[in-house]
Amino acid sequence: MDSFTPSCKRSESSHACVGRFTRPYLFEIIRELRRHHRNAFIRFVSDFLRANRGLRRLSLHFDMKNKAQYRRIVDRWISRAAKAGVNELELVPWHWRRAYEFPWRLLANGRGSFFTRLKLGRCRLGRHYDFRRLSSISRLYLADVNISQEIVIDILRDCKSLESLTLESCSSNATISIAPPELQLRELVVYFCFEITSIELSAPKLRRLQYYGDSALLSFKSVPCLEHVWLSYCTSDVAKYTFESLLPELPRVSDLVLDFRRLEVVEFDEAKASFPFSGLKDLTVNVFTTYKDDLIWIAALLEAAPFLEKLQTFKKASEVRTGNEGGGILWQPTNGFQHRHLRDVRMHDFEGSDVEIAFARFLTERAVVLRSLVLTGDCIYPGKSFAPKLRRLQYSGFSAQFLFKSVPCLEHVSLRYASSNSAKYIFENLLCELAHVSDLVLDFTSHEHLMKPRLCSPFSNLKDLTVDVFTTRRDKLIWLAAVLEAAPFLEKLQTTVTTVGSIDHAGNGGGISWQRSNGFQHHHLMDVKMHHFEGSDFEIAFARFLLEKAVVLSVCHGRRWTEKEKSHLLEQLTAGIASSARIIFSVVEKVVPYVL
């Protein structure tokens, strides 16, 4: 409540008197309302935790202004979650850094054995921490937590099942050494822990490493299974260390990302690699450098990676120069070097400078089996492309493009694009990388007439598809029929089609002209809902197409229909079609589940 106004009308003097009378009590009323809402929420959460024994995940983001009161409440919730068998616990206090201390005492006598995933943000571990009470933890995420070498040693020693460790913005001025003899760690992520000066790794099962920071020295003593490495440096003096000391210790990696945010010109002597990357198949280079950088060092990496198949570059110059500024790549590989495995190259942020053109010419000349060279001006930051456990992705924006490198568990995807030219990217580039998802939401705008797309990959797992499109009157939804063909196990379809301009009703549109060859039939589509249904010609044609192919049809729209209109529409929908599908007329609002 921001203000208080009497509801009854009185004279001016009486109104002023009432206002003066109520003003001293205004903030007391606000406090009482807030206290009432807070107590109601606390009772709701407490009752929910008490009643739901099958709860799998509990995430608490809370304010610690009243430290003692909130600490008791949060402790009580954690205790009930432990007793209820919750597997995933996330605790993130707001505003007050490290005001909340994790209650280790509540996890005694095996009560913490149910937790398999734990995330602590802005919390204190306390002096009496005991990670033996979290022996079943497989994934641990510490954000803005004060740690030490002793704490890391205790985590790795006591958490016997730990497979993934993430440290984000954690303060520690010590060297982190990871070398327990029975370590099960498979993934290590270090984000912006600038006080960590060096990291020593001896992890026989480690497969993925991501490092974001300034200049921590990495030492690989024994990492025989390390395949995926992401290195992101914010300082400008890391080139010599990276090429002379770090990369020679990574000869077996198959996927390498180098991200230099402020890189000076790299000399060839620094980049020349006498060591081979015998297993490297995928290389991504993201560099913010000067216009004088001739990219010779990338060419040196190519010579050192004879089995490389995919290369992506993201080059952003600190100064924009055009014309004859660099002279291209002057270095020529020895012994008539030719690359016989590089097939796909994408050069992002391409501006057509002499250096970029020379490097592109170098690639076309030396990569004898090159299949595609994509030069794009799109500014795409690679992002966290290593996400082996990622299950849900939701994006809402203008025109971002995605690069999916390793997301084998991705099942639920929601993409909402505001750009009018996003349809081509969605159907030509994006969908082919989402062949394994089971739940897909597409929301986009198209001002062009979408033709039947070529979907080279079948959606073998897609069960639920939601499409919300703002398109033209010429769009006959042929592209949507093509998606149905590519998703043979789809069970549920929801569409919301909004057209530009007036609606053409039956008799003026021509409907869907594309017919699936070989008598296409969909044997799993059971439920179809067409939201915002207006009875236009192309909508009726698409509904008839579904009636021929599907088993159960449910038509949902956003306006009322008279009995005469219903009868006429039913006749249009079912004329000449033998179908046992249910056709339901219901008044509902436009509903698209953007949040999965």
From TrEMBL:
<feature type="domain" description="At1g61320/AtMIF1 LRR">
    <location>
        <begin position="53"/>
        <end position="376"/>
    </location>
</feature>
<dbReference type="Pfam" id="PF23622">
    <property type="entry name" value="LRR_At1g61320_AtMIF1"/>
</dbReference>
<dbReference type="InterPro" id="IPR055357">
    <property type="entry name" value="LRR_At1g61320_AtMIF1"/>
</dbReference>
<dbReference type="InterPro" id="IPR032675">
    <property type="entry name" value="LRR_dom_sf"/>
</dbReference>
<feature type="domain" description="At1g61320/AtMIF1 LRR">
    <location>
        <begin position="386"/>
        <end position="554"/>
    </location>
</feature>
<protein>
    <recommendedName>
        <fullName>At1g61320/AtMIF1 LRR domain-containing protein</fullName>
    </recommendedName>
</protein>
